[in-house]
Amino acid sequence: MEVEWRVATSSDAVALRDLERSASRVGLAHVFGELPYPDDDVLARWVLLLDDPEVTVEVVEDEHGLVALVAHDGSTLRHLAVRPDHWGEGLAREAFARAEAAGARRLWVLEANGRARRLYESLGWRPSGTTQECPWRPYPTEVEYAAP
């Protein structure tokens, strides 16, 4: 799929939150279940990230809104999401490649996010052995991954 990436702006904050919510509700339902989505907290995080000069947020959109996002800084892939109706089109791999090209050498992923972990491992990344608690209820474990 030929897509055009652009750098997100502060006017994209709500759309970024909505895309992340959409992907999380489908891909992580087995982790978060029926818990209410932390809309306000996630929106506040996007506002901060978009205002951080060290972080680049890139997006792809179609006529229905944002399709994919990737946020990265000089060393870390911060966020990657693809709208579920576009899963399997290669957008996650393309987003990942953009973060790697910008210098990302580590990331955090939910331990129970098998879909993402399979992608990262297929690209040669491996768990570093470091874990932490996710800030969202029910506070699942996150695993750090490092580039080869």
Automatic annotation (TrEMBL):
**What keywords does the record list, in alphabetical order?**
Transferase
Question: Per the database record, which ranges form the N-acetyltransferase domain?
Answer: 3-148
Q: Which InterPro entries match?
A: Acyl_CoA_acyltransferase, GNAT_dom
Q: The organism sits in which domain of life?
A: Bacteria
* SUPFAM superfamilies assigned to the protein according to its UniProt record, in alphabetical order: Acyl-CoA N-acyltransferases (Nat)
Q: Name one Pfam family in it.
A: Acetyltransf_7
Sample GO molecular function, one term: acyltransferase activity, transferring groups other than amino-acyl groups
The keyword Metal-binding belongs to this UniProt entry's keyword annotation: no
Spell out the protein name for this chain. Answer: GNAT family N-acetyltransferase
Instruction: State the species of origin.
Output: Nocardioides ganghwensis
